[in-house]
From TrEMBL:
Cofactor dependency: Zn(2+)
Protein's UniProt keywords contain Iron-sulfur: no
Keywords: Amino-acid biosynthesis, Lyase, Metal-binding, Methionine biosynthesis, Zinc
GO molecular function: methylthioribulose 1-phosphate dehydratase activity
Catalytic activity, as annotated: 5-(methylsulfanyl)-D-ribulose 1-phosphate = 5-methylsulfanyl-2,3-dioxopentyl phosphate + H2O
Name the record gives this protein: Methylthioribulose-1-phosphate dehydratase
Taxonomic placement: Bacteria, Pseudomonadati, Pseudomonadota, Gammaproteobacteria, Oceanospirillales
Length: 195
């Protein structure tokens, strides 16, 4: 499968799960010339090849019509920051939005078997830290917030905004995104126990 087709499949997969409501979310994959990224403001449930733009690593458009994602410069910053990142998938979900507002200093996870889906983890007994960074409409500032907490091998949350998952392949990035979302859904559910 081509990178373009694999990225389109990942976008459709995420959007069908309701993780990209109201045009929220943006998705990209590294290519030999830069990265392919979703156009801004498109309905992510029906993205086609014409909704993808090819950008260079400074975020400049090389090919494609329309405007790249409003958050394209953050994708570019991530590809520049870490040469092992080949895919960035960003979603807006209820669990990530609520928990990033509740825990802006980051989220500790332990005891979940699903932690092992996050690269480098072999046991549910470890305590792992899911980083949360402050939101900004300025992508340079948002990228600075991410750089301040680097490395973030699976991705991070942005306060009141959503999940940015990263991976060395599109498949790994999908696994990280799904695992993070699952772990956050469990954490949100558990927060109801004390009520
Ligand atoms: C509709 S949600 C606000 C914008 C946003 O956070 C997002 O992820 C989508 O922006 P894009 O320009 O990539 O469509
Ligand atoms: Zn967003």
């Amino acid at each position: 499968m081509s990178i373009q087709d694999e990225l389109l499949a990942a976008i459709s997969w995420a959007a069908q799960r309701g993780w990209a409501p109201a045009t929220g979310g943006n998705f990209s994959s590294r290519t030999d010339k830069g990265y392919l990224v979703t156009a801004s403001g498109v309905d992510k449930t029906c993205v086609t090849a014409s909704d993808l733009l090819l950008c260079n690593l400074d975020g400049g458009v090389l090919e494609g019509d329309g405007k790249p994602s409003a958050e394209s410069d953050l994708h570019a910053a991530l590809y520049r920051l870490d040469s092992t990142i080949s895919c960035v998938l960003h979603t807006h979900t209820v669990a990530s939005t609520v928990l990033s507002r509740r825990f802006p200093e980051g989220i500790e996870l332990s005891g979940f078997e699903m932690q092992k889906a996050l690269q480098g983890n072999q046991t549910h007994t470890a305590t792992i830290h899911l980083p949360v960074v402050p939101n900004s409409q300025d992508m340079n500032e948002l990228a600075d917030n991410v750089r301040a907490g680097w490395p973030m091998p699976w991705g991070f949350l942005v306060v009141g905004h959503g999940i940015y998952a990263v991976g060395s392949t599109i498949a790994e990035c999908r696994r990280h995104l799904e695992a993070i979302e699952f772990l956050l859904a469990c954490t949100l559910e558990e927060s109801r126990w004390s009520k």
